[in-house]
Amino acid sequence: MADMMTRSPIDERIFTGSAAMPQIAAVATWTFGQIAVRAALPLLRQGQSALDAALAGAQAVEDDPTVQSVGYGGIANAIGAVSLDACVMEGRTLNCGGVAGVENIRHVAALARRVMERTPHVLLVGEGARLFAVQQGFPLETLHTPEAVAQWYKERPKAAPPGQPPRLGPGHDTVTVLTLDQKGSLGGVCTTSGLAHKLPGRVGDSPLIGAGLYVDDTAGAAGATGVGEEIIRSGGSFFVVEQMRAGRSPQEACEAAIHRVNAVAIRRGVHPARVAFLALDVKGRIGAACTTNTNFRYAVNKGDQTVELRTAPEIAATPR
Ligand code: ASP
Fold this sequence. Notes:
Blueprint: H1 9-16, E1 25-29, H2 33-45, H3 50-62, E2 84-90, E3 96-102, H4 108-118, E4 123-125, H5 126-135, H6 146-155, E5 175-180, E6 186-192, E7 213-216, E8 220-226, H7 228-233, H8 236-245, H9 250-268, E9 275-280, E10 286-290, E11 297-301, E12 308-311
Parallel strand pairs: 3-4
Antiparallel strand pairs: 1-5, 1-11, 2-3, 2-6, 5-6, 7-8, 8-9, 9-10, 11-12
Helix pairs in contact: 2-3, 8-9
The chain binds aspartic acid.
């Protein structure tokens, strides 16, 4: 673990953030983001790319069976299948890839990277994505843990009355990891099992470039978590990045995006939509904001030994 490492003279330069070494940073959504930033940090220190580090962080969360909304042990959909969504993006090249509705593959963020690197496409879904995974040598495995199966049985979806929308279960959350490497480049990864008890075939914001994630070295990186339908509808992460391009700080950009989500949700009668954004720019500045009643927490490491857990400000809708 990064925390246990003894510092070398090179580490010392990173820790003190001296001019000799550009600042590195890793941020990730929710308390389980701590697992991600701990896994990402050693790679950033070694000089590996922002995307390598973000992927290592996301994968550590995918591997953790106690995280109930990502990867192995993720929350099942309405028919009890664990169906995963993920995407990756590189800020230097704007290369990106995503996979959606993938069953039986644990490391969907790594699979999204293969889509980026080994296909002419950006997004593969369902059975096609799974076939591609098999071709790429990813093992097929069950993603159900005994605990997750027991929980699904306990809370399993009841049929909605005729004409009513299906009922979703409690719980969701995505790990979105944003990183800044020694070369001053940004990377981002998003991975989730999505909304609990979602309809089979439902795709949220998390595998969609521009919705769940957008990364551009010339403007900044942003990721989202929360109700994917509202994030997609408001242009989520791309909106945050474009705010930074227009000169807003990462914090101002996230707050502007939440104001937009609030306005859309009020117009549609679904306020308050539970949505949060996280952002990072090439100067290592961090921003985060969420809608009311979201209690969005995120993990931060700016190259020192401590992983800090911060709480984002909740932005109330401004009356018109
Ligand atoms: N955004 C995810 C989705 O809608 C869920 C979450 O991050 O809470 O699938």
